[in-house]
Amino acid sequence: MDPLALFTLQVLNALSLSALLFFIALGLTLIFGIMRVVNFAHGAVFMLGAYCGVAVQSATGSFAASLLAAPLAGAALGLAFERSALSRLYAREHSAFLLVTFGLALALTEAIRLVWGADARQTELPEALAGIVFVMDEPFPVYRLLLIGAGGLCWLLCWLGLQRTRLGLLLRAASQNPTMTAALGNDVGRVRAMVFALACALAALGGALAAPLLSASLGLGSNVIIDAFVIVMIGGMGSFIGTVAGSLLVGFAQTFGNFYVPELALGMTYALMITVLVLRPGGLFGRPE
Amino acid sequence: MSLLSCRGLTRAWGAFRAVDGVDLELAEREICAVIGPNGAGKSTLFAMIAGNLRKSAGTVLLGGEDVTALPAHAMAARGVARSFQITAICPELTALENVRLGVQAREGLRWQPLGGRAAMRRGEALAMVWLERLGLADRAGLPAGELAHGDQRLLEVAVALAQRPRLLILDEPTQGMSQGETRRTVALLRGIMAEAETAILLVEHDLEVVFELAPRLVVLHRGRKIADGPTGQVRADAAVQEAYLGGLD
Amino acid sequence: MKLADPRLVLLAIALAGALGFALPGHATTLLTEALILALFALSLDLLVGHARLTSFGHAGPWAFGAYIAAGQLLVWQIPLPLAVLIAGLATAVIAIPVGWLCVRTGGVTFAMLSLAFAQLGFAVVFKWNAVTGGSDGLAGLPRLGLPAGREVFLLFVCGVLAAAYLLAHGFVTSPLGRIVAAVRENEQRAEALGHDPRRIRLVVFVLSYFLAGVAGALYAGFAQFVSPELFFWTVSGHVLVMVVLGGAGTLVGPMLGALALFYAEHELSALTESWGLALGLLFMVVVIAAPAGLMGWLRAAMGARAR
Predict the structure, then answer these.
(1) Which of A289, B147, B189, C211 is the most exposed place for a label (fewest CB within 10 A)?
(2) How large is the ipTM?
(3) What is the pTM of this model?
């Protein structure tokens, strides 16, 4: 294969992976930015989205339906969890959040195993999306291109939302100074619930989008949370630009690492994380902790 | 030879200079108060001397040794103890334990991972002595976090004193105290300062406290030192009055 | 007598050892496994409870110790008691660079870094087929250097647990142990007392990992089998739940938590498939409603009765 074509394909692969990672990392950074909480269960929510997506698609035969159902399920779960569990812990020290979201991850993983069993679940793409296009005379799955598009669209919508809407302004204010924002009469509790629900919806949507590519399995949650955390750490907790940069960095590192040095690929993400943390404990874009 | 010798201490953030070329000499057992309006750079200066903050420029000599680059814990190991503007005590440990930690630091009870039981008990006895001196003996067994604010400030002083430092830095010890508590604290500190073997650097907003405790006064204004001398003299200085004292009464 | 009096604890451990001769074989085996987990939980408590460094990767040193022990038993025929000690020391050595990196951070970053290292361990062991047996693991580990019999093995485990407990308790009450407490309570204050918080945390980290490695090595001798799953995050999760459930920071609490959880799991997982789910939910409830865990509840109950 023509080396340039190969390179281009790998770049496209990396972009599609980055797009998927962006869905989950964005939610994580939103939650941290607004609520100063790190949601360890975010990977499990992503996994839930994948399973939900597969289930809805087998039941209805519609991929679009799965893309609707998954984020709804994620949002519902996020809302319920924030109201019933998280909201009681805001006065406590941070290790409580770590632990309780860890418990959620455990519970979610088990719940998924109960409902859907321990086998991985595969899903079929609808005909329209299962095709290939030719990039530089080489075949490339249409679906991956769509993922890049979806990621880009998500980025655009979020950016516009944060910059142009009143809600976005509120979110940005709350992330900078929650006490002041509350004092100005905004219901910070409601903001938190909404943010958490939104973040979970995004993660679940990412999972549903990922299902045709990665297949839904029980190990998905724990793999993805580390990637997501690495992204948020690299990009800086709570930084929107940082999350984009981090997703690209990790997506590219994993794709190219996997291709050129497969034995070390697994270690790549960890090496990256460790390096960044040692050099800049607050991430590349975030505030030093 | 002076105990503490600071030359040209500067802390700058971009063009803004919180502390600008401050010189400060302190002899052994000397007591000196640093005052100035808000934003004059007092806490920043202390943070630099104690090693909590890096210096943009300048040097610090402690007992003749160049300690400019040393971090806070290394300074503490060399006999610098301090209390903080925002109370820094160990809330879940008892008052006695807190002070005993100070004694531990002094007695070199650090790198023992096992045993040391007898030495710790001796440490506790010494800690009790300090608590008694500061009027906290009856609350020795309480978790430090449960003490009243004024008692917590005193506890911090006790911990610092227990370290038997060469240089003691007190950052607004009476901050947040009531009038009565402040008066009691001043009397207490005066007694302790008279017999203590340590040099003391004091920052205070309450000028009554300053005038009662410190024979020497340094005045900072916008990061610069504008006066340095015996309290009575500095009080009368016109420049100081204009910049600071004149506005307050 | 205080609830957590060390003499009581040692007595309890001795009793457990003696029980081995009275209980039927199967029960002895269960008790042995439970006590090994108690040691595992004890090691984590030093980190999570005493130093307040939440770790999501404690399966790392546990599995590492297990594999090192496995290697010694299989390759060099080293008797188990010595193998356990060597495995613990090897884990402690590895804990120095890992810990050095980790203690530069705190809070969430520490948790995730520790998890990352454990996952790294999983990846290495999984792939390195030639040395570690890959996904199949290493089976048929011989219990060298010990007289045969479950009761004897139980006594051995009790001995190690007792020694570990004495070490942990001695550390927590020692001058250095109290400085660790100061660092966790107020880092600024600890610095002002002349202590380098990073170095102090590193000491606890290494000690904690040492004991976890010992526990893992014991497990290798117990199960006579090691596999990459020992590194998995759910193992880290389980031991963390034991610590929180039992009462972090009390040393005794986590050991009790380990026993309680082990037996509950054994009984309930036979009854219902949704035990894992119940555990996750219970964990969340405890974190929210009873953060001091079992020990906190016991102390409150005893305190209330005294009144």
Answers:
(1) A289
(2) 0.89
(3) 0.89
